[in-house]
Amino acid sequence: MHSNVTRMNATAKLPLMKRSEESRASSPRKVHSQTPRDSIRKPKEFPIKFLKPTAENRNGSMEAYGGSVGENARLDFYETYINLPQFSQRNQHQKLEDSPNLAYLGVVEKQKLKPNPFGIVRRKGPETIIDIHQYSMGDTYARAFSEGIKHLKNVSTLNLKANRLTDNGAAEILKTLESKQVKRMILSENRIGSKTITTLTDVIKSQECRLKVLELENTYISDKALGILCRILSEDKKLKKLSLAKNNLNNGSIQALVEMLKYNQTLKFLDLHWNCLGASGSVEFLEGLASNDGLVHIDLSYNSFGRKDSFVTANAFSKMFSVNQFLQHVDLSNNYFGKKECEIIGEGLKDNHNIYGLHVQGNDCVVDSKGYVIPLEYLNKTEHGHLHRRLLDTPRYKVRPISRINCWICEDWVEITITWKPQVSGTLTENPIFIHLDCDNYQQCQMSNKGLEFFAISRMVPPGMLKFFFSDSNNFGISKEYNTQILETPIKVEYPTQDGQKNYLNISKANVVFIEREPWNYKKTPTLKPRNDPRIKERTETILERIVWKIENSTFKDYRFDTEEFLSECADYDYEISNIKNIVSNKNEQDEIKQILKSHYKEISENFRQLSAISGIELFSISKNVLNEFLKKCSFEAEDQVMQECAILWNLSNAPQTKGEKYNAGNGLCRYEFAEFLVRLSITLYYKTKKCETIKESFEKMMNEHALPGMRKYDKSSWHTEKYLKEDVDHFLKLHKQILMGVFDKYSAMGKGMIDRMDLHEFRLMCNEAGLCNEDFVMREIDMCFRQAMMTEIDEIKHSEHLEMVYVEFVEALARIADQLYPDKNGQQLSLKKKLENLMTSMINICPSKAKAGWEPPSDASYHNMKYRRKVVVTQEYIQPK
Question: Which ranges of 633-778 would DSSP assign to H, the alpha helix?
Fold first, then answer.
């Protein structure tokens, strides 16, 4: 039989173990002469011998346990097996703690299993490491193994990878693991679930837990189990490395991962490769990653981020890279990112100077020697698929890299400084001097002589033989200060000429420097930063621009305000149609009276508007009683005389001058009659009594000393500027125009007049049906609001425009109603917009259903959009190297 073939003894259970001569000499003779079955067949001899409490007979207990590694450990395991009943009874009688071998073999014997050691005994390795990956233990031995390791107090690493364990078996092992020294636990490639995770979280929550590394790769972990784990890890401050690779994590896992990333700031390594995080929810995940301030290494390769909503995902990556300044090592390999997506990611990465290693194989881009992402049209992923290097993988032996990926961390790049001294290094003297490094594919890179007498450049370069040469604006050259080498294959250098043509030059000799490899030091990063060239950054951003509010663009743009020019036309019309020319016979005095009227016609017109609104006459004019009240407020010295003269002057003024004055009420003064009355009154009081020498002086005296002060007491023109003509009121009217226009159209079509105009009767009907009338707001107030909202017309006696409101007058009338219906109370001042909001409920109730269709009440966002607009702004910024 071949010597390598394992021989079996008579028990058909234990393999015969080849022993060294030294172990043969040191072991007791009785072990060699005694078979397992012989020891079992002599029960009468062992009780006294084994129950005797002597130090030399403590085998099988923790007092005599010599460890789990080496030849002696194997012999101890063998001896424990052949003396299993005796050792068990002895320990029970003497109350000794079972050794790991005895505890393990006791369960094996009960379950009638083969006594395979499964890490309880190992040929070599540290005592603190139990590495039984790919032993295919299964749940069958899990119970026995758990009993064995329960007695091992100094285990720092437990590797159970690929042992066919299920949730029950893995949970059984972790439940009995009492070692507080475990720093690394590997459960990868077993099928675990909530039981295992719950037991594991109990271990992590323990104050004595020292777990630093947890690997759960390809464990079929469910979203529920992951949620339990991530909630515990959110508060954990000890774990440094976590692997959840190859678990088909998708949208259901995103929230748990985000919660962990948001609150755990001590985890440094996270391996999520070969999952489905790119299927959906990738933006939420990347936002969580951006907020993390502790993670240094993350592997996101093979997650299909570029498969669905690739541009959205690329922008999320770009934003994450620009925000997160703690990551140093990232793997995005094989995520189906195309050229455009790579451009977006590369732009965000330009503002990040802390990621020293970026893996992008399998996407349409490469990373250059300075760390920039260079998008390419298309890369054959199949040809480069075998070159992928795991980001968080620790190789078991040294391997020679097949292809350089320009990862400063994985390839142990080193910081060096190269100099060029004019007249010493060579003949190149023109400023600037460029260097061409082979790690840059010999692209030129400008050297600096700032504050120096020579040119220098500091760069990160890969270890090994570095080739380079120099150039200025005229020539290429090599330095005398560095070793040179004749190249087997000349370097083909492309350079443009003044006529725009491309020329090529073959460089057959270059400088060489051997760069010693230095292991990457995570705690002491290099002074040089990736992606740190000086550049002009063009930034495009969307800002909120305040929209300048103007009357010309508002609801009020169609309202004709009383300008000086317009009022002058009104004064001319009223003067011509009145009887003033007959009262004042002198032509010069006529012109003087006319000019005085024009200069005060704004006050006269506004006062007429208010007095006619108070009078209650439908053909808006001033009644005799209202006129008397006005005269009393003018504070005349001889008030009784004024009242007596008023009746006579009223009759003289209140007489139509021409035919066709259809809208001149016979029981009140219209506008031109009111102006005429004022002229007649001044003549009676001052000219006829000889108090003034001329009619002009009389009219000026009365206007300045009595009429104008009285008019100011009725002046309501400030309401426009102080309350109504405001931005917030305009926005309210615009956002409610659909309702207001519906109400206006409904009631303007009810009467006999024009269907696009609303008369006083229709306005009263609307207010009544809307339920606006109450004890404090009666028909008189409704008429006043109607009249005060009407625009001034030049001709108010032959045409009816001043009696029929258009839409812009209608909304002002509603605003005046709202202002009176909801007065300020208890010192609390309500804005007109707020009062209109209170009024809108009534307007909505009377608005036709057809007009309300599709309308929604405006929100705060609606008002915000009325005030602001989004504007794209392009700015340029010079970015200095850090």
Answer: 639-653, 671-682, 695-702, 708-712, 718-719, 727-735, 737-748, 760-769
Task: Compute the CA torsion angle 663, 669, 675, 678 (nearest 10 deg).
Answer: 170
Residue 579 confidence (pLDDT): 87
Q: Which tokens go with 722?
A: 């102080």
CB burial string 116-140: b at 16+ within 10 A, e below = bbbbbbbeeeeebbbbbeebebebe
| pLDDT for the residue 814 | 95
- Return d(Cα 340, Cα 739) in angstroms, integer: 48
DSSP classification of residue 422: B
Q: Is 546 left (phi over 0), alpha (psi -120 to 50) or beta?
A: beta
- Which residues, given as ranges, of the chain have pLDDT below 70? 1-57, 179, 378-402, 495-502, 535-542, 656-659, 876-882
Q: How far is the C-alpha of 217 from the C-alpha of 190, rounded, in Å?
A: 9
Residues whose CB is less than 8 angstroms from the CB of residue 685 and which lie 6 or more positions away in sequence, other chains included: 636, 638, 641, 642, 645, 691, 698, 702
Are 266 and 237 within 8 A, CB to CB?
Answer: yes
* C-alpha radius of gyration, the chain, whole number: 50
Q: What CATH fold (topology level) applies to the domain 126-240+247-260?
A: 3.80.10
Bridge partners (DSSP) listed for residue 505:
493
Sheet of strand 269-271, all strands in order from the earlier edge strand to the far edge: 129-131, 157-159, 184-186, 213-215, 241-243, 269-271, 297-299, 329-331, 357-359
Helix (H) or strand (E) holding 837: helix 832-846
Percentages (nearest 5) of helix, strand, coil residues in the chain: 40, 15, 45
Token look-up 């009389």 returns 698
To the nearest 10°, the Cα dihedral for 571, 575, 577, 581? 180
pLDDT at 380: 57
Interatomic CA distance for residues 129 and 68, integer angstroms: 10
Rounded to whole angstroms, how far apart are CA atoms 705 and 701? 6
Q: Is residue 540 within 8 Å of 873, Cβ to Cβ?
A: yes
Q: How do strand 414-420 and strand 455-461 relate by DSSP bridges?
A: antiparallel
Q: How far apart are CA 782 and CA 860, in angstroms?
A: 32
Exposed (0-12), middle (13-18) or buried (19+): which is 352, by Cβ within 10 Å?
buried
- Give me the residues paired with residue 446 across strands: 434
Q: What per-residue confidence (pLDDT) applies to 876? A: 66
Place of tokens 């976590």: 242
Query: Mapping DSSP to helix (H, G, I), strand (E, B) and coil, where does residue 506 land?
Result: strand
Q: How far is CA 55 from the centre of its chain?
A: 70
Give the list of residues 6+ apart from residue 92 with CB closer than 8 angstroms, or none.
none
- DSSP code of residue 447: -
467: Cα within 13 Å, side-chain hemisphere: 16
Indicate the pTM of the whole model. 0.57
What tokens appear for 213 in the block?
């590394």
Confidence (pLDDT) at 517: 92
Return the CATH architecture of domain 414-517.
Sandwich (2.60)
Residue 715 confidence (pLDDT): 82
Rounded CA-CA distance 508/524 in Å is 38
Looking at CATH, the fold of the domain delimited by 719-867 is given as Recoverin; domain 1 (1.10.238)
> What's the topology of domain 268-410?
3.80.10
CA distance 516 to 521: 15
Tokens 């909630």, residue located: 231
- Can you tell me the distance from the alpha carbon of 149 to that of 165, in angstroms, rounded to the nearest whole number? 16
User: Quick check: helix, strand or coil at residue 570?
Assistant: helix
Phi, psi of 420 (to 5 degrees): -135, 120
